[in-house]
Amino acid sequence: MTKSLFKLVVTALVFAFGCAPEDSGATAQGTPLAVEPVVAMSLCNQYMEPTKKGIKVLTDKAAFEAELTASGLGLIPPEVDFAKKVAVAVHLGEKPDCAYSIDVTGARELATSVVVEVTVTTTTSTKDCSPNDSPSNPVALALLPKRDKRFTFMELSASKVCSP
Length: 164
What we know:
Layout: H1 2-17, E1 31-32, E2 36-41, E3 54-58, H2 61-70, E4 85-91, E5 100-109, E6 113-124, E7 139-145, E8 150-161
């Protein structure tokens, strides 16, 4: 059962992000890397152009600032030493309501790549609570140690119950 679930997650990864982890996929432990969250927002109830689902690895200040502007986050960019770090921007794409969020939740360095874990959380309704029904554009940005390796991404799923 566990192997089937693992294959399902890896298959979902390939379809969702066009890449799959290598070095035996998620079964390879690798070395954990520090993840420094910059922001994770649903961008709910905000007028903006819908975003497309995707991931970007940003390796310089200009690209990082352009991403913050394009994402509609309105943040003052933190100082980042791009000689030592990269930023990853993860967009879930436009969703029909505010029940979705996305976070960069982990990273591991393998022999030839860095696998970045991205968790998509879905909020389920209850009789007393339901997520706002406005369209949303979930986005997350995080900093990771710079590595001269290919970055791949693993999408994980989580759920939570709406609380008033």
